Hints:
The mean pLDDT is 92. The two termini are 48 Å apart. The chain folds into three domains: 9-127, no CATH class; 133-218 and 326-503, Phosphoenolpyruvate-binding domains (TIM Barrel, Alpha-Beta Barrel); 222-317, PK beta-barrel domain-like (M1 Pyruvate Kinase, Domain 3, Beta Barrel). The radius of gyration is 25 Å and the shape is globular. It contains 19 helices and 19 strands. Helix 2 (25-48) runs antiparallel to helix 5 (99-113), helix 12 (354-367) packs parallel to helix 14 (390-398) and helix 15 (409-416) crosses helix 16. By secondary structure, it is an alpha/beta fold.
Amino acid sequence: MQSYAPQTEADLVVSDANDAVAVDLPALRAEIDNLIRLVRREGDEIAAGWPVVKDERGFSSSAANLSNYLALRHHDLRILQRRLMAVGLSSLGRLESRVIPTLEAVATNLAALCGLPPRPHLPQEAFFAGERLLRAHTREVLGPPTLPRSTALLVTCPSEAADDPEFIRSLAMKGVEALRINCAHDDVLAWERMIRFARAAAVETRRELRVLMDLGGPKIRTGAVRHPSGDKQLRTDVPVALVPPGGLSALPDDAPVLAAECQLPEALRMVQQGDAILLDDAKVRLEVETIAPWGVVARVRHARAGGVKLRAEKGLSFPDTELVVPPLTAKDLADLDFVARHADGINYSFVQSADDVALLQAELGARRPDDWQRLSIVLKVETLRSLRNLPAMVVQAGSRQPTAIMIARGDLASEIGFARTAEMQEQILWIGEAAHVPVIWATQVMESMVKHGTPVRGEMTDAAMAARAECVMLNKGPYLLEAITELNHLLARMADHMHKKTPRLRRLMSF
């Protein structure tokens, strides 16, 4: 069976010798037929490893397409792609929402090129069924789109929105599809007012305005800190002690003078020698050197020039450590009493496995037994573990309730690095499209425009690329309304030129 792996990277380089070889159509047809069988078999094997969950929403076809997509992408198809292109056939580069239909269409065309009896093509309605499912699932989570743009907007409510109904009305007038309320801020009285204003604005403007609420999840931050008088700086090669809450007083005399509490003590019990710890949005990278009964000693391996101040309430990340901690804190469970009754959906922070999804579904069922499945769930991809388990999480969620994926790019970048985040956000888009679930592009979208009123070139390019997602999230800031106006124009223009990875060949008017 064809392995589909290039022998060397040199095999991928265009060369006169390779391109001079005529394509063997019968061999190519046999290769595609074998690939279809391989994808079906390996797709079934992948799906067998996912949780057994009753399909209550007709999600099985989407789950099957996702497993087939993963099976296909476990092979290197780059050489095969060039051979298909040479005979005018699909290069398989845009089949995310329709894996088997695309492969079978190629097989049908190859059979015809080989002079075999013609086989019928799928009707267009069946061929593009995945696109329709994606649109339907997007509408379930985010409501109808505001044309002419096809990418929805999700806007974070500032605390002031609880006392400013006109602000929320302005969002509705500008076509915003959904509001995000972060349970880490404000209280139930403020949340209730925000939602009441949103419902009233929807009625007044005749525009749906969905409300998605973030559960905070376990926060891994520094607590109290200890430092020598007058010197709080973390510099390269400086040792730091990390202790559980209240552990600073138990430090031995030979412990490093720089020390901080870790507000999630379970993390300190799970790290191993050599594991990396990232502090303050990865401004500081530490490496665990010693594990002691009172905590750990980690040495600074990288810090920006001049050092970084060791402060309380700064984020900690453990990219090398398999953190298995309950995703729902006591506060989350208390907040869920309100969220389950009032929100349209839940943004699930720190979700890392299908079991975590099942846990939230059980909690929703306990609070809203008759119709909890009307609530949507947004899976926030924030950690390396959530990235690895994303397909299984999507199947667990999508089989029971409307589902979306959020690329939480800030947290994810802290875990895997900025360079790899650029790659992984693309792959998450592909996974969402293959599963027919919407993807929300989040974190620092047009941040300079939102905060200072002036966009920068790189942010506008980022926002343009976000048009391939089903939704873009904007954070709060004094120039938010102006940023929405700018983004509306940008996304509408991009919708004319691009759908997911597929260019739309609208007539060019600039040349």
